[in-house]
Amino acid sequence: MSKIKIFLLSFLLNFLVFSSFSFSEIIKKIEITGNNRISDETILMFSKVDTGQSVKNNKINQILKDLYNSNFFNNVSVKIEKNILFIKVDEAPLIKEIKITGVKAEKFKKIIKDSLILKPRGSFNDFLLAKEKTIIRSKLKSAGYYFANIDPFIELLDDNMVSIDYKIDLGEKSKIGKISFIGDKIFKDSKLKSVIVSEEYKFWKFISGKKFLKEEIIEIDKRLLKNFYLNKGFYNVKINTSFAKLINKNEFELIFNIIPNQKIYFGDMNFILPDDFDEKNYKDLNKLLVDLKGEPYSIYSVDKILDEIDLITTNEEFKSSNAFAQQNIVSDKLNIDFVIEEGETFFIERINIFGNNVTRESVIRNQLEIDEGDPYNEILANKSVNNIKNLNFFKTVRTDVVNGKNQNSKIINYKVEEKPTGEITAGAGVGTEGGSFSFGVKENNYLGKGLSVNADATISTDSLKGNFSITNPNYNNSDKSVFVNIKAEEIDKLKDFGYKTNKTGFSLGTNFEYLKDFNLGLSTSSFLEKMETDSTASASQQKQAGNYWDTFLKFNFDYDKRNQKFKTTDGFRSYYSIDVPLISDTNTLTNSYDYKVFNEFYENNITTFSISLSSANSISDEDIKLSERLFIPSRKLRGFESGKVGPKDGEDHIGGNYLTTFNAQTNVPKIFENAQNLDAVIFFDMASLWGVDYDSSLDDGGKLRSSFGIGVDWFTVVGPLNFSLTEVITKEDTDITESFRFNLGTTF
After folding, report:
1. Alpha helix (H) ranges present in 265-377?
2. Across the chain, which distance is largest between two alpha carbons, in Å?
3. Average pLDDT over residues 375-401
4. In this structure, which CATH number among 3.10.20.310, 3.40.50.2000, 3.30.559.10, 3.40.50.620 belongs to the domain 347-418?
5. What is the enclosing helix (H) or strand (E) of 431?
6. Nearest alpha carbon to residue 623 among 694, 690, 712, 681
7. 59 pairs with which residues across the strands?
8. 232-266 pLDDT per residue, tens
9. How many CB atoms neighbour CB 593 within 10 A?
10. In contact, 60 and 87? CB cutoff 8 Å
11. 3-state secondary structure labels for all residues of 344-359
12. Where does 140-198 show beta strands of DSSP type E?
């Protein structure tokens, strides 16, 4: 073929192709058919086309694609004729409802439904239905159901609607028959097994859920293993894979592949500070760096140092900073420069408080750690939020920091949502020491001033008590708490202790933070007391019958380093108080000291040790009253009846002048996976009570009493139930013991 013919043929083909791609028409009209539920406007929105546009063939293909991607249609056709664009659709059915059958747990059903792409009132799509099966299977695997069968059933309804029912046969949960660790694992399998959550199936672990293969738990296990190695010096540890191998019908072998790599030790560590930062603030941290040098690398130690740097920032005259660790490995040494960069300083232009309809703004502002005009400090701003939350007046407390009028200014908006602060409570309880009934009314934010007003009464087998108190937690904006308390009580101990007392009086005082975490308290109390004694009591006891007027001055010192007041996991508390008689008929001087320390020896284990020392002595020659003598409560010495330990006068336990107790307990790992309302502890108690001022011959010499056992706190739907099983180790013949104690109470 000649070159001319080839050229002409090539030209013709290119012209035809070009012409086909270049073909276009101006749309003068759009006609949409087949839609009943979906409006023309919605279809036009998804098609992204309008009259007056020039439409080429590739645009028609794009319209088709866009309409199919909307998932509203089963079928779509698009064509253009004589400048009219014809769009014909076949609407997909509307989903009326989605059901999950075969799964009983409503909470798990909701988790599955929330994860689905198809939703009620949305369009049905066959392609997405197949995808939903994969999503459901993933959720079932995460719960341990590896062999579940999923069968979607589609029911056609009137008005082009469908109902979807995912019929699920869960089958048996996949058990972990064996846990193995491969690679250069360094540590024994038993140690590594103690680190992770998953555990091997054993027949006696019929309650535990940790024996089942769950993907989300496996991911947690991998992180736990990595953190374990990171805290043992293995800086570059890799948990490459974790996989499960089927070894029986529904049992898997869970295998972790561990590559620890080289062990790394802390080398040279320094602080790099901005020029205007005070090095003295980092003196204690420098000592820590010196102590760490040569020790195995620990990510925990690095994070702790960075956290401490953040705290020290508050001492840098409210300066803003950012701290990070520059790390460099040389041989087996990790050199670290803790770089502290000074951030841009912003000043607080204004602080706004929103949402407080009842609570006075001044009550909230008194909780702020920063003020208008101060340099902005994120740590103090967040601490202010915590202070406001601790008032317990609000459902939510949020903060929003926005730019001010000037470039270097900030506006802080604190947004609160108030909650009811009044309480009316009634309660009843029954236990080994009898029953009780209580009623109380309390308002924690009286008149919106932050005042706490409380009135309550309790009736039990041997007592009647009433109390009324008012507390101002921030008196006159002084950060000092001031309280006044009026109380009356009648305690009948004639049967077991030989006396009955009727006491009425009041107390008032103040508490305030003297130093960080160190609180001081000062109060005075005055009481009128009428004492009665049993006719069978000894002469020494009977002579105490009569009326008494006592006024005391009380000092208390509270050093509290607990990480939190409720459900404490770390720290300690040291508390001392002394009651000094001012105008008193008995002149009793009372001292008490309590120390309690909390330790988390391993994950989710809290062990506590506590010791208490008390004394009650007259500063004159007179005997102290029976009601002021010291008794050992059952909560301090489990296994013994409350107060029925120590010296006796005839048939009556008379307490003592001196008391010391020691308690140790550690919580038991949860046996029931879902039993969050059940706590168990193993305990050891020891106590000694001695001293009889009016007759030293009655003293039993302060002999030790001790016991050990298990205690359980169960928060039932009826109320809190606590009981203990105790084995007494040492006791005296005069002591009254009890191996089982329980108490059940409720509030309604």
Report:
1. 283-292, 299-312, 361-365
2. 144
3. 86
4. 3.10.20.310
5. strand 422-431
6. 694
7. none
8. 999 999 987 766 777 777 788 888 999 999 999 99
9. 16
10. no
11. CCCEEEEEEEECCCCC
12. 149-157, 161-169, 175-183
3-state DSSP assignment of residue 381? helix
Residue that the structure tokens 């009983």 belong to:
104
Phi, psi angle pair for 655, to nearest 5°: 70, -160
pLDDT in tens, 181-204: 998 888 988 889 888 888 877 655
Confidence (pTM): 0.56
| DSSP letters spanning 503-552 | EEEEEEEEEEEEETTEEEEEEEEEEEEEEEE-TTS-HHHHTT-EEEEEEE
Candidates 2.40.160.50, 3.40.50.2300, 3.10.20.310, 3.30.1240.10; correct CATH number of 629-748?
A: 2.40.160.50
**Helix/strand/coil percentages in the chain, nearest 5:** 20, 45, 35
DSSP-derived secondary structure letter, 599: E
CA geometry: angle 167, 173, 174, nearest 5 deg: 125
Six-digit token pair at 396?
């939510």
Structural domain spans, the chain: 3-91, 94-169, 175-259, 265-342, 347-418, 629-748
| Cα dihedral: 495, 499, 502, 507 (round 10) | -120
Fold of 3-91: Ubiquitin-like (UB roll) (3.10.20)
Structure tokens at 39: 């409006």
> What is the residue whose two structure tokens read 């900030």?
410
| Residue 226, helix vs strand vs coil | helix
CA R_g for the chain: 38
Token code pair at residue 199: 């555990």
Beta pairing class for 175-183 and 238-246 = unpaired
Q: What does the alpha-carbon distance between residue 724 and residue 712 come to, in Å, rounded to a whole number?
A: 6
Check the CA dihedral 24-25-29-31 and report its sign.
Answer: negative
Among candidates 293, 287, 419, 277, which has minimal Cα distance to 355?
419
